[in-house]
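Course assignment 3, question 2. Fill in each field.
Student: A.L.
Task: Predict the tertiary structure for the chain below.
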Amino acid sequence: MKNPEIFVVMLLYMCVVIGIGLYFYKRAQKNSENYFLGGRTLGPWVAAMSAEASDMSGWLLMGLPGVAYWFGLADAFWTAVGLAIGTYVNWLIVAKRLRNYSQVAGNAITIPDFFSNRFKEKKKIVLGICAIFILVFFTVYASSCFVTVGKLFSTLFGFNYHVTLIIGAVFVVAYTIIGGFLAESVSDFMQAIVMILALVCMIVVGVVHAGGFGAVVENSKNIDGFLSLFKMASPVTDANGVQQAIAGVPLFGEASDYGFLKILSMLAWGLGYFGVPQVLLRFMAIRRADEIKRSRIIATVWCVISLAAAVMIGIIGRTLLPVDAALNTASNAESILIVMSTEYLPLILAGFIMAGILAATISSSDSYLLIASSSVSVNIFNGIIKKEKASDKQVMWLSRIVLVVIAIIGVVIAWKEDSVIFSLVSFAWAGFGATFGPIMLFSLFWKRTTRTGAIAGMITGAASVFIWKLVLNRFLSATMPVFGIYELLPSFILSSLVIVAVSLLTKQSDPEIEAEFEMAKAGQV
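Answer field:
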């Protein structure tokens, strides 16, 4: 086995994570609210940093640096800006209102529960639609995490990609079953610290080995468009997508324009925050609404530093490792942090960096699996199928079974070894943002929103993501650039328009809904 020292460090880290799960085991098994929402006991630091860690995942340490290494600054930079703005605005306008409203609306413990209770459903149509889309998009999300684990262990230790894919999935499922939401949130807090330390450490080491920041800038200037915010570098590749090189110098063609539509497209990543359940659930689980301001500051600072560091690692990596067999395709480029760590750090310290990547993966995949399983056990089974309310024990056992099924499907999706993490995440992110983002905002801030408008808006948002990505973008973007826009933006707009139009055409007849809206607005919990 290659790099046994790194393997030992990562194994020790995984033992710590398991220990956290075991510590919270008894409390998690107490009831379903504790298991799925931690009993609404998260403090400001844990709420903020666990939200960001569960959101960013291995995408932050592999996907984003890989984009910067392959295409240069523009794509990664504008994506990071959109995410940083989205993080701040989400904490600013959504967190407090959702914390209050979810408790007012029947003490909801899942996002589908909240929407269903918000509209006082008798026939659980909103509940069912929410649960189904959460299941679909989180399965894709989980697969991106499993890809990260497979790439990490195959690159580092020479292990078989598919074997490590399966082992990683088994570990995450076992850990999530043991500890539930509270263990997941506490370990995510620890993992957020490990992630940011890993990124900052690697920047310092990378700049030193590159001969200083000036040397990085000078090298990057030799690649057309690499440091531009309005152009994108164009690696010259063969038919298999492998970048070509001459005498150790990577070949790049003429940079492509990075115009207004592309910038708008990347900034639109920020819209996704209004609809991603792993972050919204932290808002619902915060101990007290008056602690949200502190959480907002913590989350935004962490997010800005981490995103900036991830982008810089990709840029620095192109100077340190201009040509490397382990980084010669768009998919392989996502291993830049792994390769830099093993090349330029003592193996023990490299193990710490690799633990950061593993941390990011675990912190996200456990969130995805827990939320997806709750959508079936709490919302579909207990909320729709079972005529009499199921016991907590029944709900939690079904949740565990669903966890395993979702993990198996995620492994199947991730089975292709050349899967690109960035692409998987971007599709799932768009799905959540367009399906739940508009209806979340309208539900919280527009009293006139109706149940029929909510249903129409969610279906429109989800359908638009699939149609835009799989049809319009694929077949028309080459001749009509407007269809090259990231699918989240047009889908978000269409969903919003449909919610407004349908709500105005339908009647809001329940005075209890309006009363609860005013209570949440006034913070009366």
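Instructor remarks: The two ends are 57 Å apart (CA to CA). Residues 161-210 form the longest helix (50 residues).
Grade: pending
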